[in-house]
Amino acid sequence: MNTTAASLIGFAGWLVLLTFAVAFFRVYITATTAKAINSYSPDGSDLQGFGRRLTRARDNCFETLPVFVAIVVAAELLGQMQALHILAPWVLVSRIAQSMTHMISTSPPAIVVRALLLTVQLGIYVYWIIALLAGRG
């Protein structure tokens, strides 16, 4: 398996793991409080603290996963997958680090760190798009 496929699968796996964590957290809250299982807001706005941060960290994966998938599909169709292999693991690492930072804190320094990690991902995507359009794969 190449690094791009492993990174894409890792990203999807991370999203699934966070989704399970959100579900288990909500079941825990329902079991320990009077909150009805069918009363949760999809965006986590009805939760406080870690529950809200966990939900938002999971939802933030939707920001860039479709872009990652589209670039991988395009690279495959163009026969330029090798253009992605070196940086693909950095997309996964920066996404996991961004999610972890989000779950740990929403302090101003943590927000700056999250923004920097998102910028790493977006920068890689822009680089890939330019490279694929230029045929430099």
Write the layout of secondary structure elements.
Elements: H1 3-32, H2 49-78, H3 88-104, H4 108-134
Helix pairs in contact: 1-2, 1-3, 2-3, 2-4, 3-4
Low-confidence stretches: none
Alpha carbon gyration radius = 17 Å
Query: What share of residues are in beta strands?
Result: under 5%
Gross geometry = elongated
Question: Helix- and strand-based class?
Answer: mainly alpha
Average pLDDT works out at 95
Elements, N to C (H/E) = HHHH
Number of helices: 4
**Main sheet specs:** none
Let me know the number of strands: 0
Describe the structure.
This protein has helices spanning 3-32, 49-78, 88-104, 108-134. It has 137 residues and is an all-alpha fold. The two termini are 18 Å apart. It contains four helices and no strands. Helices cover 76% and strands 0% of the residues. The mean pLDDT is 95.
Please name the defining characteristics of this protein:
137 residues; mainly alpha; 4 helices; elongated
